[in-house]
Write a structure and sequence with these properties.
By secondary structure, this protein is an alpha/beta fold. Helix content is 21%, strand content 22%. It binds fe (ii) ion.
């Protein structure tokens, strides 16, 4: 074989090894990182924006867009996955409460494959203790990994589990919102639960928020759906992003991600949905191009 070809092959092999090592190192580090994103969802105008809310900015002062509006601020996180959480707990707690939320919302997957959920329950307990000290209510949705957890066990943490039920919550503006939790039946023989039939008619769809683990839930709804906001987790931002969307087209059966809807805002059936990337890792303690995330979300109506 000519020397030139040997040199080219050697260089290419070296690049592949170095590139692979870099991806692996990044994947090992990323689960310990945390993005704290501030987002605004303007339901009445069907708009959402991150730029409108600069990090560290005070929405109460000098923000004419929020004047006279019904406002709810929530801290949203999801997908602890038991021991799959690598984000330091102090960083997680400070991130959740740095936005002065009206409520803390957890969008499911306390455990990992239902096994040894103690680590995830402990995290929820620490969050709820801090929330209680600050007078902030905490609500949780069940994830597909949480099917073996009883309601009592989840609510022993201090989080209120919303499963086929709703709760009226009040924003700092004084406005009333309806938080609805349909629940999750798990992947096997999945049934999308209906919304509770006794939703208060005096709270319009604009102020109805569905907290549901799997964002595909919106696909089960009529068009238009009887609510305008849906908050979910489950997708992990892909957790390990593969070329050509392979993790969704080959490895997972979730439908919205196959359309490219993986994290952040999306619109479907009159609903504005938001998917958080979650904070932990499922199966493998690795993340790549999908950093753990907490979202401070301001909902304006
Ligand atoms: Fe998950």
């Amino acid at each position: 074989m000519p020397d030139a070809i040997i040199i080219i092959l050697t260089v290419m092999a070296g690049l592949i090894v170095v590139g692979g090592a870099a991806v692996l190192i990044r994947s090992l580090i990323e689960p310990y990182l945390l993005d704290i994103d501030r987002e605004i969802l303007d339901v009445s105008r069907n708009q959402w924006s991150r730029e409108a809310c600069p990090k560290g900015g005070n929405l109460d002062s000098g923000d004419r867009e929020s004047e006279g509006r019904a406002i709810l601020r929530v801290s949203l996180f999801s997908d602890i996955h038991g021991k799959g959480l690598r984000v330091p707990i102090t960083k997680l707690l400070n991130g959740l409460f740095s936005g002065s939320p009206d409520a803390v919302l957890f969008a499911g997957d306390i455990a990992d494959s239902g096994k040894k959920p103690e680590a995830g329950l402990r995290i929820l307990r620490l969050v709820a203790e801090r929330a209680k000290a600050e007078g902030i209510p905490c609500y949780a949705a069940r994830g597909n990994h949480d099917l073996l957890l009883t309601r009592d066990r989840i609510e022993s943490t201090g989080f209120r589990l919303l499963e086929n039920e709703f709760e009226i919550i009040r924003g700092a503006s004084g406005a009333v919102f309806l938080l609805i939790g349909p629940g999750d039946s798990g992947k096997k023989s999945r049934i999308w639960p209906q919304l509770p039939g006794n939703l208060p008619a005096d709270i319009p769809p604009e102020r109805r928020i569905v907290l549901v683990h799997n964002p595909d839930y919106v696909r089960s709804q009529p068009d238009p759906a009887p609510y305008r906001v849906q908050l979910s987790g489950h997708i992990h931002g892909g957790q390990i992003l593969l070329p050509f969307n392979l993790q969704f087209t080959v490895l997972r059966g979730d439908l919205l991600p196959r359309e490219g809807i993986v994290s952040g805002f999306f619109s479907r059936k009159g609903v504005i949905g938001y998917i958080t990337r979650g904070v932990g890792c499922g199966v493998l303690p690795l993340r790549f191009m999908a950093k753990p995330q907490i979202t401070h979300l301001e909902i304006r109506v």
